[in-house]
Amino acid sequence: MQVAHWSRVEWDCGRWPHFSAHELACHCCGEMCIWPEALDAIEALRRAPASPLAITSGHRCAIHNARVGGAPLSLHKQLAFDVALAGHDPAQFAHAAHACGFRGFGYGQSFLHLDTRAKPARWFYGNRSKAKWASLGIF
To answer: What is the pLDDT of residues 27-43, one digit of tens each?
Structure first.
């Protein structure tokens, strides 16, 4: 794992051609964590539906994570992704993310949190999100 300002990380454009370190870096300071397993999974997901992904949050430094109310042990402090669901079928998108190697799923109304934690986990961002995803037959 490599952590540095996005302009100083070693970015493999051949391995992750659809994303940039700048795009996935912390919004407040530019810090970026290179976590190859997570980057490989998001690149595979980008290729799976063959449509762009809008990453609304990637890596977060500890200060930014606290400011946005992130969990103290949030995987965003390494590398996790909040992906906007606009333009995607939510159920198909979630299934594709699972097939691409993601094991952590946070279900929001307009986004899906994805990470490559060691053990599978899922949670909902409120009862409305839970109802939405249940109505899609995800569970």
So the answer is: 999 999 889 999 999 99
